[in-house]
What we know:
mainly alpha
Amino acid sequence: MTRTRFFATVSITAATVFVSAIPAFASDATLSVRASKTNQKALDVSCVQTAVVTRETTLDGGIATNNAAQTSAYLTRKNALSTAWTQTDATLRKTAIENAWSSFKTARKNAAQQWKSTRDSAWKTFKSAIKTCGGDATLSGELSQANSDQ
């Protein structure tokens, strides 16, 4: 037997032994993963449902408050600009217009900050509540949507 044939035969034999051993190693790894999952607390779907309803109710209230604040800002701006344009003095009119726009921008900024605070708080509370629901609730599709309601 030539030297090349000898090494080829040994290599093929070693590869066959190695490949045949892979399923044994893989099944052991799978069993250990499954065993660790069985130790988890079962997912309490009513717990998740309660957390979702609480979050959504908070978000509904926050968006309603934001809409009311935005509407108020626009109405206040309309009235202030209307009043400003009744001024016959150009200097007073310019000051009144600038004040109307400045107040409008401040009101909108405050409303946006309030909405962001409400939204962030709702999601933070939800993430905390869902951890108590067991299972792999923290990996559910709910958390992947956390930034979609900005």
